[in-house]
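Class prep. Sample record?

___
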Amino acid sequence: MFDPILQKAPMFLLIAIRCFAFLMTMPLLSMRSVPRTAKIALSGYIAFFMIGQVEIPAYDFFIAGDGAMTLNFVLLALGEGLIGIILGFYTTIIFGAFSTAGQFTAFQMGFSAASTYDALAQVENPLMGQFFNFCAMLIFLQTKWFQKLFLTGLVKSFSTINAIAIVQSRQGIVQFMLSGLSKLFADALVISLPLMGTLLLISVCTGLLSKAAPQMNLLSEGFPIMILVSFYLIATIFPYMCDFFVNSFTNGFGTLQQLMLNLSGGNG
């Protein structure tokens, strides 16, 4: 079992570093409840199964023939860790759209004060943000994107992107991450817009009615009305939201794949 690792120890370490950085930043596995020892072990297992499939000719010049650790190898290791962080961070951005949509909805519903620690997002998150984030994670697992991300995306990333390409295309990487952040807010607005628009109309109507008949005190009664209407709307449009979640995963990972193809010169 250890012979392939010993024969290609430098390459095994580089693969393990990228896998570990990816596990430390991607949703679900980056949770504090997952022991770091388990993440290291999983990174080692993934690197062991991939060591026979991964070849990075660009690294051969920088790895010493005797396997000694040089400054070039340390820089390659840092680059591999950066690639893993980029992959995991972009996956987190995709899930951040659902959590942000829940925050927008919770603010309009009056649930913004009801915030607790979200183990998935690892931040203080309103209840609706946790609900959308949890639903997105279930859909992510149900549609087998988790397996695709590891068995296809992570494996192909070694043949399309490396630390040298990251240095040469650093401006494109920065633009890619900034466009991902802008897309996060765009997707969050698309998800929350039906609820926010309906609740805004209810707020305007209750305000006008309370001005016309102050004795009705509709502003105080409008709070439970908005909560009931919100849950009714969520139950009504939830199938369409699930379809949007699936399309978001497809478009997001498609964009990430296109970035890898661009960095590899279109040879993927």
